[in-house]
Recover the amino acids of this structure.
């Protein structure tokens, strides 16, 4: 899908800001003092907080926009760098190299390019890709020369260095090989996949829960991981006391930096004897909203009673369904506390959960 014509692609989000702001911030980091933004949808750009840049309204075409900016800019300088803000992967290295070639080597036009690694076909025939140069921005120019060339130009351009190539005998042109990725965002899907790449690929969270238990004479039930298991103890809890689900829920909320169960489900009447699957689903909803899913989960249950070993399979199956993840991503370990302390006495049951989430 192409960016629709009524959405200025420079206002599309890359990382946590739009492409335009991303570029401005980068140039400011490099201590650029004179930045001219050429844009049509100025109001929406939200760049009023930058006081040392000028905004010039773009023209109908790219060439017209650049020409407008060069003629109307109030900034005085000997050199100018022109950049397509749709390229968010700026490189300090290439910018320094352009400036060096302009000032020290006295080139009129310095243009970065990358080699073409794909096979290129025109009318069913392969072009010799070794000869191809994929032209990038930013490009550097001697300002009065590019102003003159734009003034006499009548054709639409896809980049400004073309003006110098048209008069290649009159001007000194330097092509700089750039091996870093310098993608121009044209399609929404490109921006989506770029955002996916740079997003934190993994989030990790830890959860812990402990509940008091009561020995019972008759056989009773305890809930672990959403499974009802026969037990000689009863868990004392405001909710259904499923320590496994409570620990998992907290670990997912933790991975998402979203506090803990108690924040969302306090000990109110409404949550009395509440099914812990509700808590888990609440955390999973937040996880889905962030476009994350379970990568793996490691659970440790500490209890004297019930013995967990006979119930591993059924608990893992239950968790696999609840967490919508393959069984292979879930591990449960169980240990006793060697009869020591309150857990060892059988007065408490505890559970740790470590979860990692990945980008969906
Ligand atoms: Zn709990």
């Amino acid at each position: 899908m192409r960016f629709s014509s009524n959405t200025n692609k420079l206002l599309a989000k890359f990382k946590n800001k739009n492409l335009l702001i991303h570029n401005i911030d980068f140039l400011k980091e490099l201590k650029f003092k004179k930045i001219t933004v050429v844009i049509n949808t100025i109001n929406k750009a939200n760049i009023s907080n930058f006081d040392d840049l000028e905004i010039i309204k773009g023209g109908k075409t790219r060439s017209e926009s650049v020409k407008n900016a060069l003629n109307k800019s109030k900034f005085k300088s000997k050199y100018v760098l022109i950049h397509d803000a749709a390229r968010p992967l700026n490189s300090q290295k290439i910018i320094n190299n352009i400036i060096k070639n302009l000032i020290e080597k006295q080139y009129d036009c310095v243009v970065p390019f990358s080699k073409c690694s794909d096979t290129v076909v025109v009318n069913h025939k392969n072009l010799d890709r070794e000869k191809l140069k994929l032209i990038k921005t930013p490009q550097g120019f001697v300002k009065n020369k590019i102003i003159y060339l734009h003034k006499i130009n009548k054709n639409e351009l896809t980049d400004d260095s073309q003006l110098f190539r048209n008069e290649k005998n009159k001007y000194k042109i330097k092509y700089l090989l750039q091996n870093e990725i310098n993608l121009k965002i044209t399609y929404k899907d490109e921006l989506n996949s770029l955002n996916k790449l740079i997003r934190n690929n993994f989030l990790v969270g830890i959860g812990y829960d402990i509940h008091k238990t009561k020995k019972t004479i008759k056989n009773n039930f305890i809930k672990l991981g959403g499974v009802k298991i026969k037990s000689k103890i009863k868990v004392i809890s405001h909710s259904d006391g499923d320590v496994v689900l409570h620990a998992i829920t907290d670990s997912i909320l933790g991975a998402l930096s979203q506090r803990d169960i108690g924040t969302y489900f306090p000990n109110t009447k409404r949550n009395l004897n509440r099914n812990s699957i509700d808590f888990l689903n609440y955390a999973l909803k937040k996880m889905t909203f962030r476009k994350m899913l379970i990568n793996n989960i490691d659970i440790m249950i500490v209890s004297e009673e019930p013995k967990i070993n006979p119930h591993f399979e059924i608990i893992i199956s239950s968790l696999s369904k609840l967490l919508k993840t393959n069984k292979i991503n879930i591990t449960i370990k169980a240990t006793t506390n060697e009869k020591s302390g309150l857990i060892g006495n059988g007065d408490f049951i505890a559970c740790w959960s470590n979860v990692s989430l990945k980008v969906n």
Q: What stands out?
A: The pocket of zinc ion is lined by residues 209, 211, 237, 243, 246 (CB under 6 Å). The chain has twelve helices and 16 strands.
